[in-house]
Design a protein that fits this description.
By secondary structure, this protein is α+β, with helices and mostly antiparallel strands. The protein has one domain. The chain contains 6 helices and 5 strands; from the N terminus they run βββααβαβααα. The radius of gyration is 39 Å and the shape is rod-shaped.
Length: 190
């Protein structure tokens, strides 16, 4: 699986060169060559002379489909148009460190330190995102439990509002209609 990170920014240009391929964070040989101040051919030649230092979890060559995906994502140029003729190699964080020791130049060592720091920063950011995602999930679960309780509360309130109002009992002295009719009315003189 291929997933490009965001484009390189002025603050962290190396982070934008780190890709996710086969579930690993890697960098292309051409990008590393540029950072190390050598050609891609020189870098790959150093790799081939020292293949025993680069197990599959340090470096691997892309398959044709992965390469096609990179081309379609405009990460590298198409073959036949002055672009790559061979499948590119990619290097994990450990491969980057090993590559710096194989190239053994002051620029390679300096670039390697910057690249490893970029990998570490990315790892910290991913860990932070994981922690935030876990906290959000916990909040969602807590609120989901409250949803049913709030719904029950609203149902009870609707029930109270829907009940017919009981007639109020009047306060004061009331004479029954029968008693009033039986009582003689006093006649007044004019």
């Amino acid at each position: 699986m291929y997933m490009a990170t965001e484009p390189a920014s002025a603050a962290h240009p190396i982070e934008g060169l780190i890709l996710s391929i086969r579930g690993q964070r890697v960098m292309l040989d051409s990008d590393l060559a540029a950072l190390y101040g050598v050609t891609t051919g020189q870098l790959n030649q150093a790799l081939k002379r020292n293949l025993d230092r680069f197990p599959a979890d340090f470096a691997f060559q892309l398959e044709r489909q992965e390469f096609a995906t990179l081309i379609s994502q405009s990460v590298i140029s198409k073959t036949g148009r002055g672009g790559r003729q061979k499948l590119p190699w990619v290097f994990t964080e450990h491969g980057v460190v090993m590559l710096a020791s194989v190239l053994n130049s002051p620029l390679a060592v300096t670039a390697s330190v910057k690249i490893v720091r970029a990998f570490l920063l990315m790892r910290e950011q991913l860990a932070l995102h994981s922690v935030l995602a876990a906290k959000l999930s916990a909040i969602e679960q807590r609120l989901a439990g409250h949803d049913s309780e709030i719904a029950d509360l609203f149902d009870a309130l609707r029930g109270l509002l829907a009940q017919p109002e009981k007639p109020r009992r009047e306060i004061g002295f009331h004479v029954r209609e029968e008693a009033r009719l039986k009582t003689p009315v006093a006649k007044t003189k004019h």
